[in-house]
Amino acid sequence: MLNDLLKKRRSIRLFQDKKIEEEKIREILQAGLYAPSGMRRNPWEFVVLSDPEDMKKAALAKKDQPVFEDKGSHIILILTDHVASNTYIEDSAIVATIMQLKIAELGLGSCWVQLRQRSTPSIADSEAYLRKTFNIPDQFSICQMLVLGYPGEDKGEKEAASFEKKVHFNSYKQNEV
Question: What is the 3-state secondary structure (H, E, C) of 90-155?
């Protein structure tokens, strides 16, 4: 069952013009709240954007990849408290993954957008831009955001990386090319 979900989850960049129901958004956020974290500090909080103007502002956070300015139903900014946790980067990635799996389980699509150490067209730091734009306290890092909605494309199942090339038992062994 989990393997089927892992195969199904794909990065979706084309969405239908249809809003996700509030109940489903709450289910996604609740799934994130179950995510493991270092020393169970739960350093994450979420800012959920659904207003098209706010989503356009968030889309400016990446200069090299326009982020679906007027596409998708919602954007979830994943905040992690870097003061409270020294595993905030890992914790942020874990919660994003859990949420993406829940999104896929609900038949929705999402795209993970990496923000840490990225820049905007006019501001040198994506996180600083989002912090200022959405009034986020300095103690929070914004390592990524999720764009989500009803998929407007079908990418089929994902192929796994080669088990034989990627898995080593007892010690690393160079794969022959």
Answer: HHHHHHHHHHHHHHHHCCCEEEEEECCCCCCCCCCCHHHHHHHHCCCCCCEEEEEEEEEECECCCC
Distance CA 25, CA 106 (A): 10
Sign of the dihedral defined by the CA atoms of residues 125, 62, 55, 29, in that order: negative
* Separation of alpha carbons 54 and 124, rounded Å: 20
Residue 144 and residue 61: Cα distance in Å, rounded? 10
Q: What's the start-to-end Cα distance of the chain, in Å?
A: 33
Query: What gap in Å lies between CA 132 and CA 83, rounded to an integer?
Result: 18
- Torsions phi, psi of 145, nearest 5? -140, 160
pLDDT tens digits for range 109-161 = 999 988 876 766 666 788 989 999 999 999 999 999 999 999 998 888 888 99
Q: Residue 116 is which amino acid?
A: R
